[in-house]
Amino acid sequence: MKHKSSKQSSQPRQVAILLVLGILLAGASVGLYSYYIGNLARISTTASKPKETTLKVTNKEHKPAVLPATVSLAVPYAAQAPFGNWTVHEESCEEAASFMVHEHLAGIKYSDNRIPDATVDPIYRTMKTWQVAHYGSEPDLTMEALGKFNKEYYGFSYKTAAADETSIKTALAGGNPVVVPVMTHSLQNSMYGPVSVYHVLLIKGFDATGVITNDAGVGNGADHHYDWAILWQAIDAQTSKMNQGRVMLTISK
């Protein structure tokens, strides 16, 4: 009986080993390919999404609301000296401004938007009597003192603030009349008398060039217009007398 050589008997074993190695290598290649594709997808997804921390905004600033081009509040007009009686009402500008604001806040309407002299005359007199009783006299009032008077007399709230074009426009756009301190002659209104005196001016609106006022101190003061430059010089002129600068007063319920 003939025996097969060792070379011949080892060939099938080698083939089997090579086959197994081929299968293992193929499986490893597939695994590496899957791992590579998975990581590539993950890297691509991560790169396309910025980190949330880069999108967070702290201390967000709010832009102010856009102001309208013009405002004119329907504040009724009252003369400072009803019936032309300057002897009694030389100092009644504070009373006039206060009462105009009072009627505006109360929503009271008048014919031609003007409060009759017969209505305001006794009201001013009562205010004057109250000031003498509580303050010892009827003094010229700063914006802070006028705000305090309205709080004590009417129970209103008030706020004084630095006056500039933006603050005045913002208050008016919010429906609040503005009161400012001035010297009369610096308003360059020919209807004022020969002497420049301290005065309070009620601003009821504005347009592109200046302010719309109810200036109680002059006969044509209803809806009277003053340019911004005129307003500032009139406010600045009272500083040395009243020790207050560019300040404004708003009064509310």
Quaternary: single chain
Can you give the helix content as a percent range?
Answer: 40-55%
Radius of gyration: 42 Å
Through-space gap between termini: 128 Å
Mean pLDDT: 84
Listing every helix as H and every strand as E from the N terminus to the C terminus, the arrangement reads HEHHHHEHEEEEHHE
Beta strand %: 15-25%
Q: How does the major sheet shape up? A: 5 strands, antiparallel
| H/I helix tally | 8
Give the helix/strand class: alpha+beta
**What is the tally of beta strands?**
7
- The best one-word shape is globular
Q: Outline the low-pLDDT stretches.
A: 1-10, 32-37, 43-63
Describe this structure in words.
With 253 residues, the chain is an alpha+beta fold. The chain is built from eight helices and seven strands; from the N terminus they run αβααααβαββββααβ. The protein has helices spanning 6-48, 86-89, 93-106, 117-135, 143-154, 165-173, 228-237, 239-242; strands at 71-72, 157-162, 178-183, 198-206, 210-214, 224-227, 247-252. The strands form two sheets. Strands 1, 3, 4, 5 and 6 form a five-stranded antiparallel sheet that branches. Strands 2-7 form a two-stranded antiparallel sheet. A hairpin with a 3-residue loop joins strand 4 (198-206) and strand 5 (210-214). Mean pLDDT is 84; it is low at 1-10, 32-37 and 43-63.
